[in-house]
Amino acid sequence: MGRSPCCEKAHTNKGAWTKEEDQRLIAYIKAHGEGCWRSLPKAAGLLRCGKSCRLRWMNYLRPDLKRGNFTDEDDELIIKLHALLGNKWSLIARQLPGRTDNEIKNYWNTHIKRKLLSRGIDPQTHRPVSAGSSAAAASGLTTTASTAGFPSLAPSPAPASRLHNPVHTAPPSNVSFARTATSAPSEDGHSSSGGSTDAPRCPDLNLDLDLDLSMSLPCSPPKTPAAASSTPTSHHQQQQTICLCYHLGVRNGEVCSCKTASPAGPRAFRFLRPLEEGQYI
DNA sequence: AAGTATCTCAACCGCTAGATG
DNA sequence: TCATCTAGCGGTTGAGATACT
């Protein structure tokens, strides 16, 4: 498209940030706030790409970041969220205040994957790995048994990045992460956003997950009023709405306050359709 | 102590959605 | 409507740290 590069690469530093660069970036953002990342480097006197500045700030310098080890509770929450959302690291990160998507992504790849495999669970599908079939696990092949930790949270087979992103779009009906047996598989077999295993590993899987627009944050307003009022099907209107936090046990049984805290009204909180009797996903 | 293997995680790259003119 | 720009996302890489021989 003839698009110009995001920065003049010939005149930008790359690699690890120095303390001085960090200080410059922090000072600038403290003075001016987060804003136009493209123009920030020049304004702040940094020989860095705006993208790089943004990343450095978001992943490392932000004052509200929580450094240090993840707790077991964090682990379990991440696992559950991953089962629900796939590799939507930014969405997962928003449920863990002080953690970044990059940090969670790294933690997943270095710790949780191994932890799940040691439990005999395929980290991509969240289903038990059949005995001795680590290769199957790696390729996303699964058994049909329920997951060990959360049988109702079988993973959604990898919505293509942004194609089914509940934050960005309000589909005409459910944001169904499930795919039928006739759904097209992903173009490649390796891990991509949302997961690597678009093979029909769960042909009858129907998560029927209706994540509302505020999925991104417990109480964040919807992106647009139009989207917020996107017409739910009558089918939906009959569903009891349950906050995702509540469903996941985040609030430990409490009714999530995000329902009331949202300025956008009752449509602004996330809900899952409870499974009907005999239904499994 | 030295060399090698493995692990961790900060940073980069390429891509897309949404905004704008 | 189209072209372009920007912010943001997810996958990947590689330097440094650590463990092992």
UniProtKB/TrEMBL annotation:
Domain Myb-like span(s) in chain numbering: 9-61, 62-112
SMART domains in the record: SANT
Biased composition (Polar residues): 171-196
Compartments in which it is found: Nucleus
Low complexity: compositionally biased ranges: 148-161, 203-218
All residue ranges annotated as the HTH myb-type domain in the record: 9-61, 62-116
SUPFAM superfamilies the UniProt entry points to: Homeodomain-like
CDD domains found in the cross-reference section: SANT
GO molecular function terms attached to this record: transcription cis-regulatory region binding
Classification via Gene3D superfamilies: Homeodomain-like
Keywords: DNA-binding, Nucleus, Repeat, Repressor, Transcription, Transcription regulation
Pfam families: Myb_DNA-binding (PF00249)
Annotated spans, Disordered: 148-233
This protein's GO CC annotations: nucleus
Name this polypeptide is given: Uncharacterized protein
Species, as recorded: Oryza meyeriana var. granulata
